[in-house]
From TrEMBL:
The keyword Ribonucleoprotein applies. It comes from Strombidinopsis acuminata. Gene3D superfamilies: 1.10.287.310. SUPFAM superfamilies: Ribosomal protein L29 (L29p). This is Large ribosomal subunit protein uL29c. It comes from the Eukaryota. Keywords: Ribonucleoprotein, Ribosomal protein. It holds the Pfam family Ribosomal_L29. One of its GO terms (molecular function) is structural constituent of ribosome. One of its GO terms (cellular component) is cytosolic large ribosomal subunit.
Length: 184
């Protein structure tokens, strides 16, 4: 074999001479596709369709895991859905009350009852704990719970964007994004 000089020392020539037929057999159909592995010594060489079927099985498993949230929602009875909605209403009402109290505190309203902050926060915490305990009883994992929370938040955001319109789709500077809380 030919040797070429490189900064790392002498290495084999990058383009060794070989026959045209050998180059044609090692060429792949797709440049991005990995070269097929050939097992020497006979036996279980992997076929092209086995890798494809494994990929399809993986995709199917991902789809099934994302559909589990929808299945959990459909499995709830009317009473359970109504109770979950009631818990959600308690949480939202509590957050509204906290906002109102913060505004009263900011304008220094006379006779304001500051002990209500703690009481309302505890009530919200109890409602959220109750929701999570009910999810655990239904067999919802922590990851599924997080996904459902994110999806609820996204649905609410989409509802508000439909009603009031979204943000203008113009490029924004990093300074503006930081000031508006889009990035940290």
């Amino acid at each position: 074999a030919l040797a070429a000089w490189s900064p790392l020392g002498f290495v084999a020539h990058p383009m060794p001479t070989r026959s045209r037929d050998a180059a044609a057999t090692t060429r792949r159909a797709n440049a991005l596709e990995p070269a097929p592995t050939v097992v020497q010594g006979g036996g279980g060489s992997e076929k092209w369709w086995e890798a494809t079927s494994q990929g399809l099985i993986g995709k199917l498993q991902v789809e099934q895991s994302s559909d589990s949230i929808q299945r959990l929602r459909k499995q709830m009875t009317y009473e359970e859905a109504a109770f979950d909605q009631e818990i959600e209403d308690v949480v939202v009402a509590g957050k509204r009350a906290l906002l109102r109290l913060r505004m009263q505190k900011a304008v220094e309203t006379p006779g304001m009852k500051t002990h209500l902050f703690k009481a309302i926060r505890k009530q919200i915490a109890r409602a959220l704990t109750l929701r999570r305990q009910r999810e655990i009883a239904r067999g919802v994992t922590a990851e599924q719970s997080r996904r459902m929370r994110r999806r609820r938040r996204l649905e609410l955001k989409m509802k508000y964007e439909e009603a009031y319109g979204g943000e203008a789709a113009m490029p924004k500077s990093a300074k503006w994004k930081r000031r508006m809380g889009r990035i940290v």
